[in-house]
Amino acid sequence: MNYLIWRLHRQQAMFAAAALAVLVVLLLVTGTVMAHDYHSALATCGATRTCGELPGELFQGDGLIIDVVSCTFVVPLLFGLFWGAPLVAKEFEQGTQDLVWTQGVTRRHWITSNVAYVLAAAAAWGGTMSLLVTWWRGPEDALQGGRFGVAFDITGITPIAYAVFAVALGIAAGTILRHVIPAMATTLAGFVLVRGAVGLWLRPRFAAPIRHTFRLVNNISGAPPGAWILSKIVIDPSGRLYDPSSPTDVPAACHAALFSNSAASCLAAHGFRRLVTYQPANRYWTFQAIEFAIFALLAAALVAFACALVFRRDA
Q: Which of 153, 171, 177 is nearest to 72 (CA)?
């Protein structure tokens, strides 16, 4: 059975291995250079007292490679489309399950073996990719003081859960629809929908956010370094939302400075403050664990559903 699984999936495995090798070389080469630049800058900025300027200066010419690495968030979806969706759907579409399940291999053995190997491969690939990206982004994340934002989806342990979930979703879609293209389309839509719902709606609510008021200083939020800022608004001395378009909300003394660089200092002098809602940077691993658990449980439920459906269907 192991040899049969290898024969069935060897092209996918070899393509994934080649892609991973390219990614490893790219990240090792560019990551080593970026780490050297970062440590060199730290060694010299202390003497000139310019370390605070590093986030705005360092890696400014590396935008392209940073964007390429950020795009690795789509890799788990590719596993679902090309590994998960065809796994069962292709057998039903071509009618080969009638041969496979009557040649000494039970449907239970076939589905559990195939699913186990594909999920393990997706987890291994996702883990390796996450480990590399987490190391590569080390200097950039150190400058920012945290790993919320785009880095959250491509570092830590969540990429492993995303990959396993995508494959499980593809397997479930293929088991229900029995055709590869519809299963791939369903996997794409389902993955985007679930990831969007968790990332945009659930994740900010994993823990009660901190709300704090800070002195109003131009574009400075006041939140701790690396914090995930959920919202920032200006409030008047009574705590109401400040509306610069409303003449009654603007103190008369600040009318002349409203559209100048001194507007913030004028409003601050009249008791206006910035209300910031944020998740602190030290909640990164807690949020990683929560999101990992969510997608791992969803994957387990999808796999159990797909297996149950295959067991009940006639060969």
A: 153
Q: What confidence tens digit (pLDDT) does each residue in 132-151 have?
A: 999 988 887 777 777 888 88
Contact 177, 183 (CB under 8 A): yes
The owner of tokens 């360092």 is 58
Contact indicator for 76, 166 with CB cutoff of 8 Å: yes
Range 96-122 average pLDDT: 73
Indicate the DSSP class of residue 52: G
- Separation in Å, CA 186 to CA 3, 37, 171, 253: 30, 44, 11, 59
* Whether pLDDT at 14 is above 60: yes
Token pair in block for residue 183: 């299963």
Residues sharing a CB contact under 8 Å with residue 286, sequence separation 6 or more, in sequence order: 206, 207
pLDDT for position 199 = 93
Give the burial class of 40: count Cβ atoms within 10 A of its Cβ; 0-12 exposed, 13-18 middle, 19 or more buried: exposed
- The Cα-based distances of 243 to 221, 240, 251 in angstroms read 18, 9, 11
Q: How far apart are CA 208 and CA 229, in angstroms?
A: 13
Where does 72-106 have alpha helices with state H?
Answer: 75-79, 85-94, 97-100
- Residue 315 binned pLDDT confidence (cut-offs 50, 70, 90): very low
Q: Which of 6-20, 26-40, 175-189, 204-218 has the lowest mean pLDDT?
A: 6-20
The distance in angstroms from the start CA to the end CA of the chain is 18
- DSSP class of residue 260 equals S
User: 241: which DSSP letter?
Assistant: B
